Amino acid sequence: MRPMPFPRTDAQVEVNRARAFTLIELLVVIVIIAVLMGFAFPVFSSIQNQARKTQAKNDLTQIVTAVNAFYTEYGKYPTSATTDLAATYGSGTSSDVVFKELRATGGTMNTRQIVFISPAEDTAQASPKGKMGSDGQFHDPWGSAYVIRIDADYDNQIMPNPYGPNNGAGPEPLRQGVIAWSLGKDLTLGSSGKFTGSDDVISWQ
Questions:
Q1: Whole-model pTM?
Q2: Domains identified in the chain, total number
Q3: Which of 90, 141, 163, 201 is a Cys-bridge partner for 195, taking CB atoms 3.0 to 4.6 Å apart?
Q4: 106: closest CA among 78, 148, 142?
Q5: Per residue in 3-29, pLDDT tens?
Q6: Segments forming the whole domain that contains residue 110
Q7: pLDDT one-digit tens code per residue, 25-72
Q8: Which pLDDT does position 93 carry in this prediction?
Q9: 8 Å CB contact between 98 and 67
Q10: Is the peptide bond before 160 cis (omega within 30 degrees of 0)?
Q11: Domain annotation covers residue 194
């Protein structure tokens, strides 16, 4: 015969109850974790977006430096355009033609085949974030191609200012040989046409 189990005492029942979580306690813990995550997510998102802006600023500096180095080497910019507006690449006109020259991967102007810029690339994607894509363009951390405007008429100024005069991005014309910018997270130029209040990143500030 199997021995009969001893009946549990009230003390043992109370101990077992003390060791277990009730459904209400578990729900309270889940709610607390959800609230904490709700507070943490905006902070994390803000930090991540700021890091992307910093990366974009560094990329723009590299692009401008590379174009100016090309000018120093050859006495001309890597464009065959004759006006500043026509020498705008990455918006409407692909910047592939400029990066072929700067990366010595084609083109006809970089006759010495000097590599002026060498960003990371991902040719498996058309617009990879923060890399050169299969389209031959350099993309910002949000996946939009960086835009470049060059002083193609060699008058030591760039016109027009993409944001207009005195809209937070300097006067018009800009006393620069080359400028570059990123459309930012919203992939839109400026905010109501102005740089002020936008999430864009520009090379000349």
A1: 0.80
A2: 1
A3: 163
A4: 78
A5: 665 555 555 555 555 566 788 888 888
A6: 27-202
A7: 888 888 888 888 777 666 667 788 899 999 999 999 999 999 999 999
A8: 95
A9: yes
A10: yes
A11: yes
For 65-70, which contacts have Cβ atoms below 8 Å and span 24 or more sequence positions?
A: 65/117, 66/102, 66/116, 66/117, 67/98, 67/102, 67/116, 67/148, 67/150, 67/177, 67/178, 68/177, 68/178, 69/116, 70/101, 70/102, 70/110, 70/116
Does residue 14 fall inside a structural domain? Answer: no
SS3 91: strand
For residues 60 and 66, give the distance between their C-alpha atoms in angstroms, rounded to a whole number: 10
> Are the CB atoms for 62 and 54 separated by under 8 Å?
no
Q: How far apart are CA 57 and CA 49, in angstroms?
A: 12
* Domain assignment present for 19: no
Element housing 150 (H / E): strand 147-150
